[in-house]
Structure formats: structure tokens, C-alpha cells
Amino acid sequence: MLNQIKGLHHVTSLASGAAANNDFFTNTLGLRRVKKTVNFDAPDVYHLYYGDEIGTPGSVMTYFPFPDAARGTRGAGEVGTTAFAVPKGSLGAWQDRFAALGVSGLKSGQRFGDDVLTFDGPDGDSFALVEANDDRTPWSGGGIHEDHAIRGFHSASMRLKDEGATGELLTFMGYEKVGQDGDVTRYARADGNGADVIDIETVPGAPRASQGAGSVHHLAFAVDNRARQLEVREALSDTGYQVTPVIDRDYFWAIYFRTPGGVLFEIATNEPGFDRDEDTAHLGEALKLPAQHRHLRERLERTLEPIGD
Hints:
Helix content is 17%, strand content 34%. It is α+β, with helices and mostly antiparallel strands. The chain has an 8-stranded mixed β-sheet with strand order 2-3-4-1-13-16-15-14. An 8-stranded mixed β-sheet has the order 6-7-8-5-9-12-11-10, with helices on one face.
């Protein structure tokens, strides 16, 4: 069993428009845009990162907004709901805020004994706020009172035809099965970074999901550094997983592999962080380009969709 993984690092999804996406995460949810860059493989598409003040691993939601992309279709083999942790007693204020702002899909309920508010993102993305005792420091510059503000991820839920093989993988990755609520099985880490929970919803009769706007592209798990990442890579490869070489993503190093249930996993380092090319006071303000795309700056600054501050 691995002990290097410390919980979620980030969640990366697809969107159909950069401006609407930026507005939702910075204004509606009050997160900080900590990086404005472009897709390594498609530089005409932004890669936007949102999180706490410095983009702490376990707080960062990232998006590839492909202009006018068609929506994905729900089904098996995908991440279903991405959940954020908020303080106890704050869901009423969030429900009022979302209702006033026209957020769709609002539904209150409980999951594993926690009060939960589910809601939709601008592309039909499935999100939830979960009341939790969470001492992580929120971003206080996004217009949300600190008593209510998002602390980081609470959990991510995968929707799979069968739990077995992916559950075994999570156990190998250091997670422990901690509960069952209906058709949802919960796995958690006891010593993680706060973003410590993965749920598996079993949907044996569901059709295969197809990715598009509103779909999660991959789940990324955090390790402290490159040495720990190489240990994880070796262990996964020895177990039979086809793992990519280490890839430099400027703000972290990454490896990727496909899980038995079809969801793409990434193992990302906590180093070097989002302040490697911007000081903390100005994170996410300037367009930052990977080295191979810097010659495109003039064209990209002219053609990428304006998204505001």
C-alpha cells in the first residue's frame, strides 16, 4: 500500500466558454483565479486555475474552456460530483446566494451524515457544498464572508458500473473504505491534506459517459515532491498500470494512468507551486505561457476570449 499520496491535488474539467467559467468560480463561488495560462497541447484554449490564496493542493479546480464545446453526456466511467468543504452552518447562506444569482440544480440533503447542497455549474457540471469541520484557510478576497467561504475540496465522486477494481486501486493508493450510503461507497485518508475523500457511486445499468463541456477530464492526487512521485510511478507500473513518463506542467510535475473504471488519474507534485512565475499578490492576473508557446503571445493575447480580472 502506498503512503505517499496526500489527497486530491486538483480536479480538471472541460467548459464551453472562458468568461462564464471565470465568472462562476471567482464571483459566484468566491475562489481566486491563481493562474491564467493555456492548454499545453492546444494553446488556443485557456487553462484556468481557481483555488485558495496560493492555490494550495487540495483546493484547485482547473478548466479547459473549449469555445462552444458540446456538453458531455452523463453515464458510467466518469467523475460525477465534485464537492467543496464549507463551514458548519453556512449552507443556508449559500442557498440564498445561489438562488439570488440564478444557480440551477439546487437541492439540499444529507450524505454520510453531512449536510450537503448540490448545484450545477455553467455547463451542467455537478457540484456540491458539504458542511465540514475544516480548519483550512479560505481565500478571503472573493467577496464571500470567511465564515462561509470554501475551504478546498471535500471529495470527488466517481460513477462506475462496478466498484471492485477501482476500490482495490484506491486501497492500494492508501485509501480506506470507511462507509456505505445507498449505492455510494466512501474511501478516505486519515492523514491527508483535507481533500481526503473519494466516493464511488455504482451504476451498473448506466450507459458509458462521453466527455464534453461540464465533464471532469481527470482527478489529480497530491504527492510532496518528485522523489515521492517516482516511487508511486514505480509501484503503479509494477502493479500493471500503464503510467506516462513524468511531464513538466510548469507548476507541478505530473504522471497519468487510466483506472479500471475508465476515469483518468494523475499524480501531481506539490512543488514548485503557482508562485514560481508570479508573486502571491498578483497570482492569475497575467497570461502565462509554457515555453513552447511563448512565441505565440501576440496572437493569443489578440484571439483568446477576454475574461476580465
